[in-house]
């Protein structure tokens, strides 16, 4: 589902300032000292995913209620063995479904959109409690010029193996008219990823970027991140076209690798969402 940018604002210009709140920084209590010899430790594996759930308020007349869509989605996510999922367009009634399940931890960033009755939508990260423990959670408040701020959740999770992974999840706006906005947001996200890489051995990055080759080229250039699809820039620094046409991506950094990339279109075919679930096995050593 395309991110809806809300009220109409004047077009961006090259001189727009990029700003972020104090929560841009990694909280001191969340920073960790890199473990010496961590590369020699046995690797751990988790299946991770990214899923634009299609917000509850976007249910078409006569369509499947967003709560039902979320319950069905959660059942399939669990059956596939995922233990970390970045969620976009995730609204309060759908969050209730995840919380009521009992098996998942959940962190929701501040609202990107607010609807009637106190319902709000935006980005979130959920993790399987049997595999992960929440150490800390914060968020990136991304503000570009006079555009409204978008809120990107970040969590530090500890695996049952004792290893820690920091996860950030984003949703960048759709449409040709928002191209400059996306470019500025990508710059902010790259800066945040570089900061996170300075503190953590393992960094996981998920989202609906509303871009294909532009996004994967941007985040894999200069070895910033590894793409779960296996995409790599050319040796000369140029970028080939992506061989997959969706806008949902998973990236990782540090001593990590990916395998078993999968695009599950069941979620679209059964009208639970208008996006597939993308997932991969994530090995972190």
From TrEMBL:
SUPFAM superfamilies: DNase I-like. The keyword DNA repair does not apply. It comes from Kribbella deserti. Residues 77-275 form the Endonuclease/exonuclease/phosphatase domain. InterPro entries: Endo/exonu/phosph_ase_sf (IPR036691), Endo/exonuclease/phosphatase (IPR005135). The lineage of its organism: Bacteria, Bacillati, Actinomycetota, Actinomycetes, Propionibacteriales. It holds the Pfam family Exo_endo_phos. The keyword Amino-acid biosynthesis does not apply. Keywords: Endonuclease, Hydrolase, Nuclease, Signal. This is Endonuclease/exonuclease/phosphatase family protein. It comes from the Bacteria. GO terms for molecular function: endonuclease activity. Residues 1-25 form the signal peptide.
